[in-house]
Amino acid sequence: MSLNHLLQRADCAYTARFGGEPLWHAAAPGRVNLIGEHTDYNGGFVFPMAIERYTVIAAGPRAGGKKAAVWTDTFDEEAEFELARKEPPAEKVDWRSYVAGTIGCVLEKGLAADPFNAVIVSDVPLGGGLSSSASLEVGVATLLEAVSGTAIDPVEKALLCQKAEHEYAFMPCGIMDQFISAMAAEGHAMQLDCRSFERKNVPLSDPRIAVLVTNSNVKHTLSGSEYPQRRADCAKAAELLGVRLLRETAVPALEDSRAKFDALDDGERIYRRARHFLTEEERVARFAQALAAGDWQAAGEAMYEGHRSLKEDYEVTCPETDALVEIAERIGAGGGVYGSRMTGGGFGGCTVSLIEAGKAESIAEQIRTAYRKATGIEPAIFVTRAAAGARIL
Ligand code: ADP
Ligand code: MG
Fold it and tell me: Which ligand gives the minimal distance to the CA of 95?
């Protein structure tokens, strides 16, 4: 679905629900991370790009009160939100948490919005690792800019949205999702330093190249302790290496300290977690160079290696995402696939592949058939180019 189509849908929904025509429109994209996985909390680099999938919000003035009425197409539900004060977070997290949190955090910063009615439509898949949550938050924040007539500095906007996710969805996420949704440049991926917030837009606009996102359509909910466990392992590795963050060290130092790891019962595992991060830092650098040089093979190789590291050292892949990457690798450069890897937190979700744009349809068909045969599951596949970040339309 194109952005225009989403806008039309939003306008129709607005008129049907609230009457009249909406006055303000905001759009914020989802994202896919090309490389640099499980690196943010170690102060490392991530490499996301915005995808051509958006959360679109249409809104108009509302008579009386000091509230916003917001309806979402996704759940066909409407709720009211306070505009006069920051609402406390609800215990049970649902879609309202993201909206209430963003409104609360943005208004707390001093933005004043008059009452409004709004409808949300979106084609970012929910919970698929493409950050529908950040696109919702950044979409709401951007709408508030339109309604109040006050621009927020984009870095501050991203940080406010991250705060909303921390405080209202109780999700201790890094900065990647909100940064890329708020600040992506069209035709560019973003090399983002999660320690300094420094960012570089890296061109990814060669018309012969496209990015293919494949949703495995599985989400293995393990004990829920996997993510904190990985973070704890990395913190332990940093401690053993005498640094505050793994970012402050490198592979040779890790190898020199091998004995310190071997002395621990779970040292071998902690060593592998650190090795994933430190080699991933090297891969991100290599990937950036390869993109700049238009060396798609080298960029793709870094992606395959990244997947292997996430599988063997970090242990966050699953049979389904492994199958998708194997299938991509089998199609190979001859068939138009340069590289592929799981993207997002892991244990299911999506893979991202760098492909030859002209072969996208045939590649998608081959992946679909082979994945179905291997797992019995129907994947969801789409091709995207690097989209622009959030904007008022
Ligand atoms: P992801 O960000 O990877 O898609 P999350 O679990 O972080 O997954 O966020 C998904 C949640 O965000 C949904 O369960 C819902 O509460 C909220 N959300 C995202 N998009 C919308 C939308 N268009 N309408 C309502 N809620 C949404
Ligand atoms: Mg999310």
Answer: 1
State whether 179 and 236 are in the same domain. Answer: no
Reported as half-sphere exposure (CB side, CA atoms, 13 A), residue 251 has a value of: 9
Tokens 């293919």 locate to 212
Summarize pLDDT for 137-172 with one digit per residue, the tens. 999 999 999 999 999 999 999 999 999 999 999 988
Residues 188, 231 share a domain:
no
Could you tell me the residue range of the domain that residue 79 belongs to? 3-203
- Rounded CA-CA distance 190/114 in Å is 35
User: CB within 5 A of ion ligand 2: which residues?
Assistant: 131, 133
- How many A from CA of 50 to the centre of ligand 2? 14
Residue 391 within a domain:
no
> Based on the domain organization, do 245 and 374 belong to the same domain?
yes
Region of 265 please: left (phi>0), alpha (psi -120 to 50) or beta. Answer: alpha
Mutate to test the pocket of ligand 1, among 124, 133, 180 (most ligand atoms within 8 A of CB): 133
Contact 206, 294 (CB under 8 A): yes
| Ligand 2 center–CA 182 separation, angstroms | 14
Q: Domain end: 184, 203, 222, which one?
A: 203
- pLDDT tens for each residue of 186-243: 999 999 999 999 999 999 999 999 999 999 999 887 667 888 899 999 999 999 999 9
177: annotated active-site residue: yes
**Could you identify the atom of ligand 1 that is nearest to the CA of residue 130?**
3
Question: What is 348-361 written as a DSSP string?
Answer: EEEEEEEEEGGGHH
Pocket probe for ligand 1: among 124, 132, 173, the residue whose CB has the most ligand atoms within 8 Å is: 132
What pTM value is reported for the model? 0.95
For residue 389, being part of any structural domain is answered with no
